[in-house]
């Protein structure tokens, strides 16, 4: 029985030390990750000199790996124990984020110009040293892949039937607290230090994960059930089983369209807002609108749709997404005069992000429900380990498409010889969001067709 279990079976908010340690370090890890990731394309372009397309492909691969690897790293964590897995994870993250902080300084020490003008960064376009970021990225990716599986596994082990729901509600709250605080720190650093703030941000992240490492070493004393968990071979077999179920594959592909649009919060939005609304804009703060909306409305939406099928709820969310992208496009079509004290691009971006959060309330919880229902009896957990394959695919395709579209319709201002040339180029920047309107609309229509076809098939089978 977990240490927090109440012998009377009553629901309690008392949890074990391992539970609270895991949730505290989750806050620190999420603050580090979201602080870095919301500005990752800016760091890659303004600090290391990657082009928009290169930065998008690299950051997309970064994100994709963190969605694919956890199932496999989770299996390894079961072998070495959760505490050892967390120490390994936070050790790798501390080294990785620290390397992202040190890397520009090392290049500068090699005699290369790292810091240029405050707004229009000179970059390292002609230097091969910038590719040193790839092994650093792999270190962060592997370290981060352990966190989700181990923390959620700890919550499962350190709770009982009476308080498991409360345990996961604490975990969900901690994730959002970390995400909100990590994104919030970006703007003050950028205002105070300019582009160098994008470098110092990695020192903040490294410090957070170092503190987490120490807390795990001192306080984490979790239970370990011998023989629990999946082997790597079982994980590969589960992936193969998921890929042979046509209905799940089609659903993953359809929801990839939704997440391709959602991922523009990190892929396109930061550069787009700063280039069109100016350096005083706050893309990292705008990104916080998404988790804010989800936290406020997810329970209400779930209650509202409780008598509707999972596909019906998901379809509502899918139909909201094209309007989200339309809002984002509208900001570049209404002039530059402030509206409610904000640049139109910034204001419409906030509205679009809010609609994305609302759509997520309809989609995410019910998607997991539907996915689990398609799994063979007794294998729900195994299948759910691959339920986020849509985010793996959308990271690769969504980020890569973002780089191409930014390069075509909203390139960096320093590529132009005059302000007039830049003004002419950015006049078509909203075309980026028209592309994502099309993707969102295609995904919504596809889900409607998917629902009609599967219902007919189920009736025929019955």
Report what the structure shows:
With 462 residues, the protein is mainly α. The chain folds into two domains: 15-229, MFS general substrate transporter like domains (Growth Hormone, Chain: A); 231-462, MFS general substrate transporter like domains (Growth Hormone, Chain: A, Up-down Bundle), CATH 1.20.1250.20. The chain is built from 21 helices and no strands. The chain has helices spanning 17-37, 40-47, 52-68, 70-80, 82-109, 133-157, 164-184, 186-193, 196-219, 232-243, 246-262, 264-267, 269-277, 283-287, 289-304, 310-330, 344-373, 380-384, 389-409, 419-426, 431-461.
Strand-helix topology:
Blueprint: H1 17-37, H2 40-47, H3 52-68, H4 70-80, H5 82-109, H6 133-157, H7 164-184, H8 186-193, H9 196-219, H10 232-243, H11 246-262, H12 264-267, H13 269-277, H14 283-287, H15 289-304, H16 310-330, H17 344-373, H18 380-384, H19 389-409, H20 419-426, H21 431-461
Helix pairs in contact: 1-6, 1-7, 1-9, 2-3, 3-6, 3-19, 4-5, 4-6, 5-6, 5-9, 8-9, 11-19, 11-21, 13-17, 15-17, 16-17, 16-21
